[in-house]
């Protein structure tokens, strides 16, 4: 049987110790038959394929250490001879390792989190024993390993130019480790092999070479470490019995650097490099304890590269200096960096496991192409340790990247604005895809990247291009880029092989100088048609180079797509369309068609065929596309067919007249316009809307409403609607660093969704049906693209460019996947559906009945079922809720019944509350975030699908007037957006308080409003937070308070301005007492029916205090002329962006049906802030304190 194979994935090593006493039975044990003591050093190595989500570790190191401690504790300071579990057995290292393994395995979490456990037992630095076995049920028997070490000195001279100075005769000290593997112990002795025997055999085997000249003693072979391993291995193998051993592995180390190993029956040769990296980072999660704060550490990183074969000269296929240079390049991306600020990690926990995977990917990309004998079967493992008691490792088989060893040199001086990193739709080298922000690309691309500029300071260009994360050591400013001498010297400057350097960009003069200096420029110059992100992907072979100007590429793409689409159309759906069209035609049998996203009129031929089949006399065809170049190409095609073209009075409109094959008159209008803009114009009479490969580009409710507005009651034919399935045939399961097709396609679909595509056509059909329409037919339209298909290279570009960032971030090699896909000639299969619909006649709400919350009596919460209006008013929108926030101030008073009954409305400025009085039952709430799912006729179509904030009560839906909506910024999460009223209130209070520079401000109450007031005033005044709760005072300090005290510690008459926002009447008295004469007291609380008793005696009478009642509904005061509500909302969004309250404040979130529990938690003071989640967004109860 073969020895235990290596496992791809992560491993964690922890260390413990146990002092034991024991004795052995058997003459082989000599003096150890007497009772004696020993200290075992025990390592537990835990392995698994993936990291825990969000935490980003395989297992918490403290948990791993605890499991090992628990396993060792029963044996520590014990006489093992007296323990029942070892009765009648020799407690050899092997037997002890098995016992510790069993106890440790029981204390660890079960698979699939962990899959393998290895226990290593050492009693000296010269020998150790291992026991390794899978943790899953039914795992094969475990593997024992016994290892011993020997040394010898010898002289040698190596043959071959690559050995440099070692070709001269020189001396060397070799360390030899022999590893014996087997699964069965000697039943009577309790060991795998007599360790004294193998120590003697190893000593005899090395003695034959000790103090000899290996040039002669090895029989004339090149005396490499591999040859030494072979010679000693043969001698050892002759001296040990085959049973119960399975294999022997020999590792030869020269000068304490492992150089190679030899396994019986199979060669596995290894080179090792070591590097160091100083970093700073912090962690998220209570399990990390003090490490949640920013801290620094130094990583010691070992890289091991193993290959199954040697070069013809007997040396290693990879030279150690290559591995060392590549490791230095890989570590340079992190050295002296704060990993929290590295875009590569996206704010995730930068555990040793995550860093190991990142370094692994960069190291794999930095290695030069494999030398003779190394191609295939290489394994690259990387271990990181920050202490002597714990270690983390990641290993994976290595397939050299297509752009192996490439070092990217980005010339900053010739990059046009087109190369900037903003998210935009642009032409790829072969088609239309979304751009990749350079910042994201640079963060994860595993190749070393340098920025070069002739300017003395290129930092502004770095920021503009999205390369601000490049460390200073990777920026070469003030360079003589037009001098060949600079480029000739560059390999020595940065420590890289000249053949690996690749210039990206550069003017003609710079590119000529680089070529003269021996540096290649493999990609064309940058331009608007070939921006920086595309160039970087092309250089590392994740994309093809451009085929021409962008507009021409888009036309050629659609021409390549047309035959694939035509072969895929569903015949059944087309037949059903003919049936539905016939009864709609009225004399003179005219068919009125609207083509959305018309491109180069790919649908025209299909419509002409339909019209002729049903006997149309006239076809009026309006083609709409936002791309002027595509419609220009369409017009040229019509002219070639003999159509008469004429310019219309309207701008960006071309008219064409011609005839179909059967003689039907064709009247075409080509309109350059955004289809959404058409929806805000009166609808023209239309019988049919066609839109090919279009329906997946819009949110389903928005598209349903768009079509209903453009052609109410018409038919809609939407062929080639992507159904979320892309695959290759035959499939490939991946090998080494090449991901499987399944993994690549999963990343591709995630990319499409992230770019705003919708991959579930059934959602769109349901949206049409919910709006009053009907599905009439649907059928599969599958694209089958062999390598020779015109569309194939475009599809390959879409997948490889769209997945590169995600695959690199996960340690995979997208360039190697692309290369392999081309080599194996796999064909693409893309599943689409053709959809035929009847559109609704008018705009209806998208949702059914919905639940709304009611406050029915003091501390009584209920729900009422409500029905949406049958039709939406012209200026009304339907908002389906995502999250709403319960106010811990005013709303909590309403819940408790602590409000004064009056004729005043709940809120005269909020539409949902201004008609409701202060009496039960009442709907309440004014902080709801949701998605616009339906809109009246006067609401711009662009609002459909947007996330919005509305001042509406807690309910699953809200129907509100469009002008009152506030769009949620893209950067803002729904949970943060729900804080908008609180942030606006805080700003209103700060404006009313208006402290002057240098003044002292007291803020009473560090609840959500008080904390946001403190954040709003940060930097403008010295703020002291006053609150009886210590945790709230701590939060106040973190949000910018200069001091935080309890009410008892408050200094009297010390504040220039006091702000009372606690809701506690006693705090108002403290505010009056704590404010200097002629100061200002801002009363921001609403006390409801609470009794307010104040001491307003002589001191107050003489104080000249100004008391301001602050309320947020309107903008009043001297600043009202400058500050509108709209301006204050903008400032409130800015405050939310700076504070991120859902992350910084103690938030409790519950599903909407658990609203009563949320109110109760607030009422009892268990929670400080509560939000309700709705629908699919709802999650079980969770809190953050």
Automatic annotation (TrEMBL):
One of its GO terms (molecular function) is oxidoreductase activity. It is an enzyme of class 4 (lyase). CDD domains: 2-desacetyl-2-hydroxyethyl_bacteriochlorophyllide_like (cd08255). The keyword Zinc applies. The keyword Ion transport does not apply. Pathway: Cofactor biosynthesis; tetrahydrobiopterin biosynthesis; tetrahydrobiopterin from 7,8-dihydroneopterin triphosphate: step 1/3. Residues 1012-1113 form the Alcohol dehydrogenase-like C-terminal domain. InterPro entries: 6-PTP_synth/QueD (IPR007115), 6-PTP_synth/QueD_sf (IPR038418), ADH-like_C (IPR013149), GroES-like_sf (IPR011032), NAD(P)-bd_dom_sf (IPR036291), SAM-dependent_MTases_sf (IPR029063). Its cofactor is Zn(2+). GO terms for biological process: tetrahydrobiopterin biosynthetic process. Its EC number is 4.2.3.12. Keywords: Metal-binding, Oxidoreductase, Tetrahydrobiopterin biosynthesis, Zinc. Belongs to the zinc-containing alcohol dehydrogenase family. Belongs to the PTPS family. PANTHER family: D-GULOSIDE 3-DEHYDROGENASE, NAD-DEPENDENT ALCOHOL DEHYDROGENASE. This is 6-pyruvoyltetrahydropterin synthase. The lineage of its organism: Eukaryota, Haptista, Haptophyta, Prymnesiophyceae, Prymnesiales.
């Amino acid at each position: 049987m073969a020895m235990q194979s290596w496992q791809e994935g992560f491993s964690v090593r922890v260390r413990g110790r146990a002092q034991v006493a024991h004795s052995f039975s058997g003459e082989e044990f000599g003096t150890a038959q007497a009772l004696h003591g020993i200290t075992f050093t025990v390592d537990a190595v835990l392995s698994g394929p993936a990291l825990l989500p969000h935490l980003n570790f395989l297992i918490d190191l403290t948990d791993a250490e605890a499991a090992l401690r628990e396993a060792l504790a029963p044996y520590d300071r014990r006489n093992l001879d007296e323990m029942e579990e070892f009765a009648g057995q020799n407690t050899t290292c092997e037997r002890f390792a098995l016992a510790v393994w069993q106890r440790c395995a029981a204390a660890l979490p079960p698979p699939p989190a962990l899959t393998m456990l290895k226990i290593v037992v050492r009693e000296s630095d010269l020998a150790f024993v291992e026991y390794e076995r899978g943790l899953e049920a039914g795992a094969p028997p475990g593997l024992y390993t016994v290892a011993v070490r020997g040394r010898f000195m010898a002289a040698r001279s190596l043959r071959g130019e690559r050995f440099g100075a070692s070709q001269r005769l020189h001396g060397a000290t070799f360390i030899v480790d022999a590893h014996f593997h087997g699964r069965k112990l000697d039943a009577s002795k309790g060991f795998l092999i007599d360790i004294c025997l193998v120590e003697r055999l190893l000593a005899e085997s090395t003695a034959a070479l000790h103090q000899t000249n290996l040039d002669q003693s090895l029989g004339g072979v090149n005396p490499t470490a591999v040859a030494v391993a072979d010679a000693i291995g043969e001698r050892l193998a002759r001296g040990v019995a085959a049973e119960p051993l399975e294999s022997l592995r020999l590792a030869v180390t020269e000068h304490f650097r492992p150089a190679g190993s030899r396994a019986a029956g199979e060669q596995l040769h290894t080179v090792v490099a070591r590097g160091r990296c100083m970093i700073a980072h912090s962690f998220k999660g209570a399990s990390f304890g003090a490490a949640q704060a920013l801290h620094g550490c130094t990583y010691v990183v070992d890289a091991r590269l193993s290959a199954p074969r040697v070069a013809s000269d007997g040396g290693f296929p990879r030279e150690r200096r290559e591995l060392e240079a590549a490791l230095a390049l890989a570590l340079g991306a992190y050295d002296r960096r704060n990993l929290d600020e590295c875009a590569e990690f996206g704010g995730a926990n930068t555990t040793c496991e995550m860093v190991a995977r990142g370094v692994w990917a960069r190291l794999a990309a930095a290695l030069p192409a494999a030398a003779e004998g190394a191609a295939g079967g290489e394994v690259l493992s990387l271990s990181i340790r920050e202490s002597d008691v714990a270690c983390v490792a990641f290993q994976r088989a290595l397939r050299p990247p297509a752009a192996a060893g490439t070092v990217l040199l980005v010339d900053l001086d010739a990059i046009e604005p087109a190369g900037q990193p903003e998210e935009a739709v642009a032409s790829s080298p072969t088609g239309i895809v979304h751009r990749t922000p350079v910042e994201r690309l640079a963060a994860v691309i595993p190749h070393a990247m340098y920025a070069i500029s002739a300017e003395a300071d290129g930092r502004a260009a770095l920021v503009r291009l999205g390369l601000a994360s490049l460390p200073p050591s990777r920026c070469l400013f003030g360079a003589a880029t037009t001098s060949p001498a600079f480029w000739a010297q560059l390999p020595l400057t940065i420590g890289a092989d000249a053949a690996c350097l690749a210039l990206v960009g550069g003017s003609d003069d710079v590119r000529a100088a680089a070529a003269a200096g021996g540096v290649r420029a493999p990609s064309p110059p940058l331009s608007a048609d070939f921006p920086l992100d595309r160039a970087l992907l092309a250089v590392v072979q994740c994309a093809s180079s451009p085929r021409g100007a962008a507009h021409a590429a888009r036309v050629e793409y659609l021409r390549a797509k047309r035959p694939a689409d035509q072969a895929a159309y569903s015949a059944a759906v087309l037949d059903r369309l003919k049936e539905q069209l016939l009864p709609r035609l009225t004399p003179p049998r005219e068919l009125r068609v609207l083509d959305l996203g018309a491109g180069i009129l790919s649908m025209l031929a299909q419509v002409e065929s339909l019209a002729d089949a049903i006997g149309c006399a006239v076809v009026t065809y309006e083609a709409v596309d936002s791309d002027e170049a595509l419609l220009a190409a369409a017009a040229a095609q019509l002219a070639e067919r003999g159509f008469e073209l004429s310019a219309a009075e309207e701008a960006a409109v071309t008219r064409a007249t011609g005839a179909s094959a059967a003689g039907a008159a064709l009247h075409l209008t080509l309109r350059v316009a955004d289809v959404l803009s058409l929806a805000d114009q009166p609808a023209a009479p239309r019988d049919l809307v066609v839109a090919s490969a279009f329906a997946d580009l819009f949110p389903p409710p928005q598209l349903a409403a768009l079509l209903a507005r453009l052609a109410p009651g018409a038919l809609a034919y939407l062929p080639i609607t992507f159904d979320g399935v892309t695959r290759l045939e035959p499939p490939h399961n991946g090998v080494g660093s090449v991901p499987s097709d399944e993994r690549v396609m999963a990343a591709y679909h995630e990319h499409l969704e992230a770019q705003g595509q919708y991959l579930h056509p059934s959602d769109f059909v349901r949206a049409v049906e919910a709006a009053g329409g009907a599905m009439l037919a649907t059928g599969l339209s599958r694209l089958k693209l062999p390598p020779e298909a015109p569309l194939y290279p475009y599809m390959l570009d879409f997948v490889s460019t769209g997945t590169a960032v995600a695959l690199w971030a996960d340690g995979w090699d997208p360039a190697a996947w692309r290369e392999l896909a081309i080599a194996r000639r796999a064909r693409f299969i893309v599943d689409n559906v053709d959809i035929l619909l009847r559109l609704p006649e008018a705009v209806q709400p998208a949702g059914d009945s919905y639940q709304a919350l009611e406050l029915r009596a003091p501390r009584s919460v209920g729900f009422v079922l409500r029905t949406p209006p049958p039709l939406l008013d012209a200026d009304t929108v339907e908002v389906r809720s995502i999250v709403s926030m319960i106010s811990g101030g005013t709303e909590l008073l309403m819940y408790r019944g602590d409000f004064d009954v009056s004729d005043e409305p709940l809120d005269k400025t909020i539409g949902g509350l201004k008609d409701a009085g202060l009496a039960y039952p009442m709907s309440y709430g004014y902080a709801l975030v949701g998605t616009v799912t339906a809109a009246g006729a006067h609401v711009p179509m662009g609002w459909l699908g947007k996330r919005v904030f509305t001042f509406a009560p807690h309910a699953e839906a809200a129907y509100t007037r469009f002008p009152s909506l506030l769009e949620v910024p893209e950067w803002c999460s729904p949970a943060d957006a729900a804080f908008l009223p609180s942030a606006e209130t805080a700003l209103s209070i700060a404006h009313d308080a208006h402290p002057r520079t240098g003044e002292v401000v007291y803020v009473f109450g560090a609840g959500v409003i008080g904390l946001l007031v403190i954040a709003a005033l940060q930097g403008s005044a010295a703020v002291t937070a006053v609150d009886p709760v210590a945790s709230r005072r701590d939060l106040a300090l973190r949000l910018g308070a200069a001091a935080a005290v309890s009410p008892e510690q408050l200094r009297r008459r010390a504040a220039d301005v006091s702000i009372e926002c606690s809701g506690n009447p006693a705090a108002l008295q403290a505010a009056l007492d704590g404010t200097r004469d002629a100061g200002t007291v801002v009363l921001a609380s609403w006390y409801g029916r609470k009794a307010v008793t104040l001491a307003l005696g002589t001191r107050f009478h003489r104080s000249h205090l100004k008391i301001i009642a602050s309320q947020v509904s309107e903008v009043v005061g001297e600043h009202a002329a400058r500050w509108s509500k709209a301006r204050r909302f903008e400032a409130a969004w800015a405050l939310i962006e700076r504070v991120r309250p859902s992350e910084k404040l103690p938030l409790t979130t519950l599903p909407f049906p658990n609203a009563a529990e949320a109110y109760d938690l607030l009422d009892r003071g268990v929670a400080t802030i509560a939000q309700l989640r709705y629908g699919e967004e709802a999650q079980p109860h969770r809190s953050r304190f």
